[in-house]
């Protein structure tokens, strides 16, 4: 895997639904080159699949991220599972308060006490999903890269309406599309961070997969394009927050 593939992957992680034209313009590459390289990465299972992630905080629900020094598999449904080289697993859970508390209790009774916990702040502006939005999300959960035209055909709606709703949900952070990258086969490195002062170094992290800030503390996953740049980033983070938990991610899954 070369530098060009790494650049394509980093940009795909940031925005998987961008067109080849948009991606080519950013990277100064032809659409044909990008198409061929993406096809090759899918064939080699470097890009395994895509996830739809719903940001439940935007819908007035709560989300909690819990880090366990335990890599045993947990059999119950979760919204995120982030596995780190340090034998640490971060779980993300979302839902209404009573349901969420029950899920947290079940998780902790199975895996033990978490050594880090972060509760994402509920968005000040609560977004309401329409019946059409929910139908669109159901389609995107089956195929996160499905075009507005194809979704509109299945729902018997106007493609312009479907595109407008998808764009609205993406632009307002209600949803995001996340590629599943086989990190064992690539140069890029994902770093997971728990910090009590995360806002102090927000300018040096380029978080796209998962990020949740609060006044002072937070949890983030950031992308780096090599081990060398990952080490520099980790050093910079620890200079600003010596108590930060910084972990190298080797696998991850997200669920709607």
Automatic annotation (TrEMBL):
GO cellular component: cytosol
Top-rank taxon, per record: Archaea
Any one of the GO BP annotations: response to amino acid
One term of GO molecular function: sequence-specific DNA binding
Gene3D superfamilies, sorted: Winged helix-like DNA-binding domain superfamily/Winged helix DNA-binding domain
One protein family per Pfam: HTH_24
Name of this protein: Lrp/AsnC family transcriptional regulator
Lineage start: Archaea, Methanobacteriati, Thermoplasmatota, Thermoplasmata, Thermoplasmatales
């Amino acid at each position: 895997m070369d530098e060009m593939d790494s650049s394509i992957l980093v940009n795909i992680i940031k925005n998987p639904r961008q067109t080849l034209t948009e991606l080519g313009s950013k990277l100064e590459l032809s659409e044909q080159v990008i198409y061929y390289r993406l096809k090759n990465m899918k064939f080699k299972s470097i890009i395994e699949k895509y996830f739809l992630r719903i940001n439940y905080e935007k819908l007035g629900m709560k989300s909690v991220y819990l880090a366990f020094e335990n890599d045993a598999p947990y059999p119950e449904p979760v919204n995120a599972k982030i596995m780190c080289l340090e034998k640490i697993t971060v779980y993300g859970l979302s839902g209404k308060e009573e349901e969420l508390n029950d899920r947290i209790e079940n998780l902790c009774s199975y895996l033990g006490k978490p050594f880090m916990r972060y509760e994402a702040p509920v968005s000040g502006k609560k977004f309401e999903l329409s019946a059409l939005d929910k139908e669109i999300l159901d389609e995107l959960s089956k195929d996160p890269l499905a075009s507005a035209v194809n979704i509109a055909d299945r729902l018997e709606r106007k493609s312009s309406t479907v595109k407008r709703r998808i764009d609205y949900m993406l632009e307002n952070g209600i949803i995001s599309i996340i590629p599943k990258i086989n990190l064992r086969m690539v140069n890029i490195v994902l770093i997971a961070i728990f910090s009590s002062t995360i806002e102090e170094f927000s300018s040096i992290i380029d978080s796209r997969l998962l990020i949740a800030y609060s006044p002072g503390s937070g949890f983030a996953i950031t992308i780096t394009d090599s081990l060398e740049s990952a080490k520099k980033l980790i050093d910079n983070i620890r200079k600003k927050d010596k108590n930060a938990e910084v972990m190298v991610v080797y696998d991850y899954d997200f669920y709607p």
